[in-house]
Recover the amino acids of this structure.
């Protein structure tokens, strides 16, 4: 039986970090053109197709048997897969998967929130970089803020265990939106997470112009009486803040902060079956040849455990390193 939530898995690296969280990309296609991710929109790349349902099932079965109990479905925009509902059902049926989440741009959310919840989705993150309609339109290329916000309300009504909103922090663009977000979570059980812009292979000038340290937000929060809470088992990298007068929370993801990588608990698999030991790994490690039949699951498990030996102590972003990742959409952020 897989270990209980909060227990150590059978996957540990040379630095003692335990990996219980898988970010599984099912497509790199996205219908938004966010300025920090896909400013020119999605461009199809040559190569093999995306993982099939059977490959996804075998992958999840292998990882869950090793103790990985949390899976987040990512993209691109994962709901663009025509079989997205079946992906939810397949992953939720895997023994050992206790928490199934997804991240979405929210464009289908108002119609799909309840359907996905009924299929087994436990938690959902919605990317909303601004609560100002014109800024949202500027950043995403779509005038859909009202539609996406209706989707957030639909998630609350559907009874998800966790509803979060992600906002990439951009200097001079949305860094003045804190008050809007605070008003939004005053009476809603939502965690808003501000994410520092990260350097990738193609955004050097954009990064230089718009990067802002998350400490600007943490300083403002502390001045307003918000208090940092301890990290929960299986949680992502966010430092969460709470306030007695607010139902919601604020989270900060600060990859350039000291010791950010010491609590790493997640691995990534791309939509074409490559294992990424870090968001900024030099290269993914192909596993697809071990996903072709159920009898390969033990070999896949041995391969993953061996590969963990190559995971480095840090992403080295603070040294100006960004690896070979060209766009975050390539491996699901």
């Amino acid at each position: 039986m897989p270990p209980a939530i909060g227990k150590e898995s059978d996957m540990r690296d040379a630095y003692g970090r335990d990996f219980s969280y898988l970010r599984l990309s099912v497509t790199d296609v996205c219908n938004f053109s966010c300025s920090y991710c896909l400013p020119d929109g999605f461009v199809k790349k040559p190569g093999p197709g995306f993982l099939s349902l059977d490959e996804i099932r075998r992958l999840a079965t292998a990882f869950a048997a090793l103790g990985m109990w949390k899976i987040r479905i990512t993209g691109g925009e994962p709901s663009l897969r025509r079989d997205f509902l079946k992906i939810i059902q397949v992953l939720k049926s895997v023994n050992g998967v206790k928490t199934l989440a997804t991240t979405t741009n929210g464009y289908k959310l108002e119609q799909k929130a309840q359907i996905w919840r009924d299929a087994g989705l436990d938690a959902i993150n919605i990317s909303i970089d601004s609560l100002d309609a014109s800024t949202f339109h500027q950043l995403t290329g779509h005038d859909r803020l009202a539609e996406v916000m209706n989707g957030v309300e639909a998630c609350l009504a559907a009874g998800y265990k966790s509803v979060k909103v992600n906002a990439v922090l951009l200097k001079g663009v949305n860094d003045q939106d804190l008050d809007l977000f605070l008003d939004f979570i005053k009476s809603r059980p939502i965690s808003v997470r501000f994410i520092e812009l990260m350097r990738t292979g193609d955004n050097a000038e954009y990064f230089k112009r718009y990067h802002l340290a998350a400490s600007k937000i943490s300083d403002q929060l502390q001045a307003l009486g918000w208090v940092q809470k301890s990290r929960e088992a299986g949680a992502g990298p966010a430092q969460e803040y709470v306030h007695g007068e607010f139902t919601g929370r604020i989270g900060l993801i600060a990859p350039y902060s000291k010791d950010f990588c010491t609590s790493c608990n997640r691995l990534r698999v791309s939509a074409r079956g490559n294992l990424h030991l870090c968001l900024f790994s030099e290269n993914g490690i192909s596993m697809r040849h071990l996903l072709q039949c159920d009898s390969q699951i033990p070999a896949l498990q041995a391969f993953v455990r061996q590969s963990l030996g190559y995971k480095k102590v840090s992403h080295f972003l603070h040294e100006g390193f960004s690896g070979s990742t060209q766009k975050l959409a390539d491996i699901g952020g």
Summary: Residues 21-330 form a domain with the TIM Barrel fold (CATH 3.20.20.70). Confidence is low (pLDDT under 50) at residues 1-6.
